[in-house]
Amino acid sequence: MSRFNLIDEPWIPVRFPDGSRAELGIRDTLLRAKDIAVIEDPSPLVVASLHRFLLAVLYRALEGPTDINQAKGWFKAGLPANEIDAYLGQWRERFWLFDEKKPFFQVADFKPKKWNAWTVLAAEHNANNAKILFDHINVTRPGDIPENKAVRWVLAIQTFALGGGNSEFQYTKGAPSTKAAMFLPLGRTLEDTLLLCLVPQNRAVIAQDLPIWERDPDTADKLKSGAKRSIAGFADRYTWRTRSIHLRGDEVGNVSTLAFASGVESSSKDSLDPMLAYRIDKDKGRLPIQFKDRGLWRDFDTLMPDDTHLAPAVIEHAAALTRFARDRFPQSVLALGLANNPRIEAKIEYWRMERFALPQALLGDRAIRTEIYQLLTDAEQTQKALWQACRRFARDLLSRGEREPDAKDIGKFVEQMTASTSYWSRLEAAFHDTLRHYTLERDADDIRLDWLKAVRAALHDTWAQHAASVSTGDAWAIRALVRAEGTIGKQIKALIEEIKKYETRRNPQEETA
Amino acid sequence: MSGFIAWLEKLNESDGKVRAVLRRSLAFNPGQHIPAFPYIEPFLKREETGWRRDMHYLVAALWAAHWREGRIDAALTLAHACAAHQLKSGSASTERRFISLLDADREQLPHRLRQMIALLGEQSIDFEALLDDLLRWNSESKPTQNAWARDFYRTLNPSKQTEPETETEMETAE
């Protein structure tokens, strides 16, 4: 018997403008989207994959947008409820979480040799190689989870599964966009968010762009032999079968174990994901921006659209839609995703959700990307001076004289110094401030002036803090500190000179005003 | 606290024994050589105790030992004088001595300072500033030691700049 239809049963966690929360089915979520503030889940991976899933539904239900004018039409009039309703009615049979023939996003005839605990679905409960603090779930006796959780995690694992290791079928590959940071411009309501992210696709592409529920069900045999195909479009990409899953529910629907193996491999290496930002690597070509040790904000310029079209298509689209409806310009952009260990493919280092203010100046004709790149370059260059000073300090402290210490020792010493971390975290706060000030009215020179001051203050304060921690040490430490200070002084002087240039440029204007 | 050196200079003009007695006091712990009392205590007006009193005795003794007839060059702070000496002599040992002086605790300070002053025989030294600095020697944040180190190394390398590091190394620092 079929159970738990995702169209009607509550499983999508949403927050309303008044702060109250609820879980809704697909139908309610889409039809009431303009009354919903956001989709909200503790897991950033779930949040990202829920948006992608809903977008896939919309692409199919609306059979568009095929161009910007169609997108603008819906942005003006709201989501067409009738089409959505009709589409969901048409495909209702494919949204049963438990079904003998066609369970949602699963492989019905997959009977594994070994049943896995449900914890393989959830990054935050994965005991194999990414156990986290305060997670006390025992994978040998994990208990069970209700359907709503199960389906959320099924979507999350399909979007964010990492490759590595052999499964019952094949070697497991990662999902098409697993390791990238996904960006999501946040509209005033969920409806706005979805429409802002609904990037137009070519009419011919849309016709072929089938999501998982419109495709013929994959069979275990086919998947075992190593299924591989190219990505047809955004709906296909957003519902990609990265893993073959078959949930085993008990009589009330709770899931304790499941079949879990490799899924379909993507042969499209170059197709664009609208939620990703890219950069050009001189050897490898276009690569997505990822979460790394360094803060994502230090690559913020890559989010800003320009002629290179490397910025997330969703942001470019959002700017295009709101250029003439400024009050609906997304106030912020979410960055969601995970970072894995570069040495161990399948080991998750962390998953994260960051929120940035989206510079409103995007709506104008200014080269925001270049402007922000300039700001970040200021910060990087100043950090180089700080880093040089740290190295010099380390070298002098380790050698206590003429002998040149081993470069590795110096490196290790610098690594444990808190100066760089402290510098970046000071600047990060200033950067978020700067983004909020990036309005259409504000002058670019003015912003840079403030930023340079912030950079100077961050360098000064960071070094002062370091100096204070050293100044009570022995004479060798004081000596090392003083000798390292030259680089800092030089950089501060350079910054002050740059600041003066902007100030003298500004002052004559003030006098005439 | 100011005018102490002026006070000593004035005494020196009227009393030929002053420098001899104070110089002799270097052989004792500061403030322990009784014949020096008549020269220092009136200035202290018996208000000063402990470290402050000791440092007045120490600086007075150092001043006396360092005194030369007819010095005309401008007085340098101790750190500047050390740096000048190193630049002139070209020997690295001055820096070592300077470092060990910076590291001196209460007990070691008189001895190391005396050695250093002896080394700087040629330089004219600002003893008034020295006294001020020594009074803050034991402060938790070591303001004197830090200031001395700054003066010393800045005088030594006025324009020396850090050599640029290579790009690959920079990457690892992030």
Short description:
The complex is a heterodimer of chains A (513) and B (174). By secondary structure, chain A is an alpha+beta fold. Chain A contains 15 helices and 15 strands.
Task: Give an overview in words.
The complex is a heterodimer of chains A (513) and B (174). In chain A, the strands form 6 sheets. Chain A has a 3-stranded antiparallel beta sheet. Chain A is 42% helix and 13% strand. Chain A is an alpha+beta fold. Chain B has 174 residues and is mainly alpha-helical. Chain B is built from 10 helices and no strands. In chain B, helix 4 (50-66) runs parallel beside helix 7 (108-119) and helix 6 packs antiparallel against helix 7. The radius of gyration of chain B is 19 Å and the shape is globular. Chain B starts with a helix and ends with a helix. The interface between A and B is medium-sized, with 32 and 27 residues.
Radius of gyration of chain A: 26 Å
Molecular shape of chain A: globular
Total number of beta strands of chain A: 15
Indicate the structural class of chain A: alpha+beta
Helical segment count of chain A: 15
Largest sheet of chain A, if any? 3 strands, antiparallel
Radius of gyration of chain B: 19 Å
Number of strands of chain B: 0
| End-to-end Cα distance of chain A | 78 Å
Strand content of chain A: 5-15%
Label the overall shape of chain B. globular
Low-confidence stretches of chain A: none
Taking the sheet with the most strands of chain B, its summary is: none
| DSSP helix fraction of chain A | 40-55%
Percentage of residues in DSSP E strands of chain B? under 5%
Tally the helices of chain B.
10
Biggest interface and residues each: A-B, 32 and 27 residues
Helix/strand/pairing category of chain B: mainly alpha
